[in-house]
Amino acid sequence: MKLFNLKYIVIILALVVIATLLSVNQTFHQQETVYSDLWHSLSGQRDRNPQVVIVSLDEETLNQQPDEPLVFWGPYFASAIERLRQAGAGPIGLDFIFSFNAEAWFQKHELDPTLAMNFEAPIRQQLFQGDVVLAAAIDFNSQGEATLLLPIDSLWRFLPNGLADVGLLNLSEDQDGVVRQFIPQLLENDIDPRFGFATLLASKSGTTQIDAQATERFNIGYLGGPGTIPSISFSRLLDETAFTEQEQALLKNKIIIISAEHAAHQDRHQTPYDRFQLGGETGLMTGPMPKLMNGAEIQANIIETLLSGRSPRQVTLGYQLGFLFILIVAIVLLFFRLSVWKAAIAALIIVLALTVPGYLAFTADSLFPVFLPQLIVAIAFTGIIGLRLTGEERERRHMRKVFGRYIPDTVVDKLMAKGARPDLGEMVDVTIMFSDIRNFTTLSEILGPRKILALLNAYYERSCERIMAHGGIIDKFMGDGIMVIFGSPEKYPDHARRALQAAIEMRDVAQDFQTWVNQHHPDLELPEFDIGIGINTGEALAGNIGFAKRSDFATIGDTTNTAARLEGLTKTLGWKIVASAATIDAAGDIVITDGQDTCKVKGRDQEVDVFEVVDLKTGEPLTTGLSETSS
Predict the structure, then answer these.
(1) Band of pLDDT at residue 398, cut at 50, 70 and 90
(2) 276 domain residue, yes or no
(3) Could you list the residue range(s) of the whole structural domain that residue 503 is in?
(4) How many structural domains comprise the chain?
(5) pTM of structure
């Protein structure tokens, strides 16, 4: 079978077009997030040394100051920032939108605003020293109108760079509500604040530069699920005596995010770790779903992404299409060659195996498509098997109708599986065998119709088994004679050897069959059971001969006619097996002969060189069955 034919090429091109169209379809990109989320959960914690620490304003902190509203916490924030600086911490971000402070509270209640200075002066002093980022946000109403929520101006004006030191907290959610990406710059270049909160903090570390044009989306290189980013309680910074050296070491040279993480806090978001259950740092587990990730921890992961440059990046479209093309060629060849059930198993194995490069690519910070190749495999399998079950199954039924009377269904299936479609009316190189029972007329007269039929069936059962064992196709039974074809419709190069091997075994079967005759007809004086076999090799026209209601497969031509005449010579020459020189030459030097002659045969002007075949040399690597040549 040719490796490629027009049908294969058409199907491959159709699948390539489908793959190309699906590759640029954003709908299927969204489907890939299922695997991306799974890879996140399976990989667990990806970095053991984060560069960000969260200072958590938690329940413990609130319980220490139960009677003080947060609006009066300016001194506490100032004390915490000062303690962080003493510990050698890096830039500090306040994950709060200070839209209200003590000074504004005093004004609202018509009290002397100068009384608020005791609460505001310390925090203003810390902001003025720099390396602090305040938070803002863009809020959208139900009509989609945007409002910029800024910290109160009495605070941001003390920042060295004013609003340029204010970062936007907005997170980018995908269509399914999961935060997988971030945008470094959220507003126009001439608007402040315009950079993301995490982007500003990362830039103040001095190890990364802000791209003023960075308005595209980037994948967040999460270090792990919720709780991966280390944190300490805000209350630890307020207690000088309890602030340990170990905690100071944790904070040294780290970017700090001070954030609310108490029970009433609502800044929690879905991340890739929410789709699948996560077992701590090690992977999947059963049990309750993990908590949503705090906004501050997502900001910390964005910072880690900017500092490390580790961001899962989609492989280029060129690589995707190149991989899909190789996959398509492989599965088309595979699905056409395998049976339906084997193709189904192969398709399932391929679909599962495609997850392996997807996961390995993720560990190297690449997003390799998995869902799309799996979809292509499913489309290819469905389409190809559909074609085979419709078009090829019709052809299979036709072949069985044409050949089924003389070729087993298993042989037809093998021909179909190998792509061998015998053309009815082609010249083929074959070996033809004719066999005839000696003294058949006398046997028939003595035994009568019923007994001679039983004898024929018993003999044919034994002799035909040997013929078929060597790949011979019984073309027809002619009363006491058999016509056998070796080498068509399935082609194999050693058809001459096979025919000679089958003939020798048929001769031995005929000798042994005399025992059967004696056992079943001991009282009758029957002639000795014997056969004659004529064999010839050459080209013949193979075709289906007949008409619509009745037809037979046959090989016609001089090769067939000569084989029939050689069988007739067995009586004249007294040989059991007569083979032409063409058959002897085709079989090679394994043939052991005795007699040799040149004879004139009926219907042929040219004489034929013939040999008496007595045996084959032992130890020769003869194939003994059709299955061996079909493998």
Answers:
(1) low
(2) no
(3) 405-630
(4) 3
(5) 0.63
